[in-house]
């Protein structure tokens, strides 16, 4: 999706807010789980369905919307017999969002000592805690930032 255009089937909840616009595009649980699984290597309808347990009709709808909104693209599978879904640059740009959700869940959605999956880098090392920082290197949070309207 172009940065300047609105998908034809989408009315913005809050046209001036980037958070609201993002949620309009990927704010339901199934969309983010499809993006998560695409980041983890899922490519086919069957893989997405098996990994998420999502109903086929809902998965079809989410894949269609994520493709229409430019987060996924379809291409011929290596076999040439089927289409597969791959992340676009816009879809890959959601990595920090998925990472932040994952790390929040690790801290707040599990009891102490409860087992859960862990995200690791290419060497098998757990990904360090993600913390946004300002231009001067200080950690940013809700107390050290504010929304400023533009133009």
Automatic annotation (TrEMBL):
Keywords, ordered alphabetically: DNA-binding, Transcription, Transcription regulation
Superkingdom: Bacteria
Family annotation (Pfam families): HxlR
Domain HTH hxlR-type, residue spans: 17-113
InterPro entries (alphabetical): ArsR-like_HTH, HTH_HxlR, WH-like_DNA-bd_sf, WH_DNA-bd_sf
Keyword Transcription: yes
Family annotation (PANTHER family): TRANSCRIPTIONAL REGULATOR, MARR FAMILY, TRANSCRIPTIONAL REGULATORY PROTEIN
Protein name, UniProt field: HxlR family transcriptional regulator
